[in-house]
Specification:
The complex is a heterodimer of chains A (about 290) and B (about 350). By secondary structure, chain A is mainly alpha-helical. In chain A, about 75% of the residues lie in helices and about 0% in strands. The chains are: A mainly alpha (about 290), B mainly alpha (about 350).
Chain lengths: ~290, ~350
């Protein structure tokens, strides 16, 4: 609210600044701290005697001779086979994003251009599906997947993630398609385009902002998923998040907890960089459903 | 758009949703009526010079044979729903007859696994959702008041807790709050109690998970409210200033009514998300003192010996019923609006 009439008192401004600084500290400090700590040894980051060791790097100096060490990273990526997990994550993410965008744009375009009642009910049904906790769906998958012997492999997980992602993608893209004027379609149809040609050559070229936003959300879902990947993939095919959890399970082993710390940093860093570049799209996506719908 | 064209456009996504969301719900429903087979036992007669003894051992061969023949398990009807791990009908009757006071009865009932999880899930929803709305709104107001130039980085910092997966988010906090972490160790020093830790107290664990929930979900509320604030018209606000309305009055009477539909949207979404709380329990290793409905299902599915499909399915169905109850008011309202609009 930066307009002339609204005069803010100095105390209000100070209070506001302090509040924002405190909130940003709460929001960001845990990540900064974990990033800092991932370059220490376990005895420092999880110090039994003195938490200040995490800053002064007392044990790291003794154990490695330097104030910072990348041991946790190199061990997790090689011995801990985190490279395999990240490879699986890349495969899953790429396929989930491309397939769900392909299915989602087709479906959402149809929903936005249909004037029938069933389009409305399909959207409501999608909302109900969106509300289903993923773990309840997983409990439905496990048994049939065991019987069909398609449990544990990446393609199954990709298809499942695409399906789970569809309701949200549909809603998001639906609200974006609604902003494209219908006259555009009509003129193309009059000129003799088929519906699919209209969709492909007229509507999609102006839809890129919406597609990028929907793609980002599919990416975040596939990249971040724990419930589905942990239960539907076997050890060999685990993606990053279940892998991090598996490091926790064996934390009596000296190195493993630090593996988890360094893997958390390795897994979060690409996401943060991505969000830094696409912040505008993410915010527009989250608000699209709320403001326009 | 003609029906036929609509059908072909919608077919791929519709098929994906039916096959992998619709059918699994049905499959869960069917599984919930079955229970895993009992182990088949046989009597083994063992004779030695001092006489014969009869012992009962598990017949592994027969057991695996029947498991292979009927992989779904034996039909159990509503048995799984009413057993001790779910609705516990028998136990509740017993408690009702045996306990002296109502308080003692409630005490007993809330110790049953399903009710314990239900109460945690509801408590979590009840505390997290309103606080998320409140904190998100305050952050949005206060970021809206800073200079435009520096808003970008501030927004980036604010949405960080939301974009990481709940497991990572809760781990990152847990490593700080744990008795060996920076915050936990300092609280121990401050309270002068070297045994004070997250795991030692149920209340502390619950509070931590709830705080985590608020931390994780507030950015979402912030983003939506922030965008909504940009659409608030300036003229009524200016008129209110001229009329001498205080800042609080302006927010209460002009801003809030304008963004009211958005508030319902955020409340609905975060209620849906909070009801499925599960990953933070693993991240905080809080299984001992806090269990949610989703965690119960997970626990059944990762069971070491036999996966308890029936038990997991029964809890799933009851979770879905819970979601339906949460969503019902919204759906009924939408339906009424839809009927009027026609």
């Amino acid at each position: 609210m930066d307009y002339g009439l609204d005069k803010k008192t100095t105390s209000l401004k100070t209070f506001n600044t302090i509040f924002i600084i405190v909130w940003l500290l709460i929001a960001c400090f845990p990540f900064i701290w974990t990033f800092w700590g991932s370059f220490k040894v376990r005895a420092d980051f999880f110090s039994r005697s003195d938490w200040w060791y995490a800053i002064s790097a007392f044990n790291t100096l003794i154990e490695t001779g330097g104030k910072f060490t990348t041991n946790a990273y190199s061990q997790a990526w090689t011995e801990g086979e985190f490279w395999k997990a990240s490879k699986n994550t890349v495969i899953v993410t790429v396929f989930v994003v491309s397939i769900s965008l392909f299915l989602g744009t087709l479906g959402a375009y149809a929903l936005s251009r249909s004037t029938r009642n069933y389009a409305f009910w399909l959207l409501i049904l999608a909302l109900i599906f969106r509300a289903m906790p993923h773990i309840t769906l997983v409990s439905g998958y496990l048994f049939p997947f065991f019987e069909l012997q398609i449990w544990g492999i990446l393609p199954t997980t990709i298809v499942v993630l695409v399906a789970i992602n569809q309701p949200f993608t549909l809603w998001l893209l639906y609200s974006f398609f609604k902003t494209v004027p219908r006259e555009l379609d009509e003129s193309a149809l009059i000129d003799g385009c088929s519906y699919f040609q209209t969709f492909r050559h007229i509507i999609m070229p102006v839809m890129w902002p919406g597609v990028i936003t929907a793609g980002l959300f599919s990416l975040m879902l596939a990249y971040n998923d724990f419930t589905v990947t942990a239960l539907l993939l076997n050890q060999e095919n685990h993606t990053m998040v279940p892998k991090i959890q598996s490091y926790l399970g064996t934390n009596q082993h000296e190195g493993n907890l630090m593996w988890a710390v360094s893997s958390v940093v390795s897994a979060t860093a690409p996401l943060f960089i991505l969000v830094m570049f696409f912040q505008r799209q993410i915010i527009s996506g989250l608000t699209a459903g709320a403001i326009k719908g | 758009m003609p029906n036929k064209t609509f059908f072909w456009f919608f077919l791929p996504t519709g098929l994906a949703m039916i096959l992998f969301i619709g059918l699994p719900i049905i499959s869960t429903g069917i599984q919930s009526f079955y229970a895993q087979h009992d182990q088949i036992v046989k009597e083994v007669k063992k004779c030695d010079p001092f006489g014969c003894t009869v012992s009962i051992v598990v017949d592994n061969e027969e057991t695996s044979k029947i498991r292979e023949a009927k992989p779904l398990g034996k039909f159990n009807g509503f048995g799984t729903y009413t057993d001790r791990n779910h609705l516990a009908v028998e136990e509740i009757k017993k408690f009702w007859n045996e306990t002296e006071s109502f308080g003692a009865f409630i005490d007993q009932v809330t110790n049953l696994p399903f009710y314990k999880a239900l109460i945690f899930t509801l408590t979590y929803c009840l505390f997290v959702t309103p606080n998320v709305l409140l904190l998100g709104f305050i952050i949005a107001l206060s970021l809206n008041a800073v200079a435009r130039k520096i808003r970008g980085p501030l927004i980036f910092g604010t949405i960080l807790p939301m974009i990481v997966t709940p497991l990572v988010g809760s781990l990152v906090l847990f490593w700080m709050i744990d008795s060996q972490g920076i915050i936990g160790a300092n609280i121990q020093n401050l309270m002068n109690d070297p045994y004070l830790s997250l795991k030692s107290s149920k209340t502390l664990t619950w509070i931590t998970i709830i705080i985590y929930g608020i931390w994780h979900h507030s950015p979402f509320a912030f983003v939506v409210f922030y965008a909504a604030l940009q659409t608030v018209p300036q003229e009524p606000v200016e008129a209110a200033i001229i009329d001498g309305a205080s800042r609080f009055q302006r927010i209460k009477h002009i801003v809030l009514p304008h963004i009211y539909p958005v508030v319902t949207f955020v409340a609905l979404i975060s209620l849906m998300d909070n009801f499925r709380v599960f990953e933070p329990i693993i991240g905080f290793s809080a299984e001992g003192s806090a269990q949610s409905l989703s965690w119960l299902i997970y626990d059944n599915l990762v069971n070491e010996e036999v996966i308890l499909f029936g038990s997991a399915a029964a809890t799933s169905i009851m979770t879905i019923v819970g979601i339906a109850i949460l969503l019902a008011p919204v759906l009924i309202r939408t339906w009424k609006e839809f009927r009027i609009a026609r």
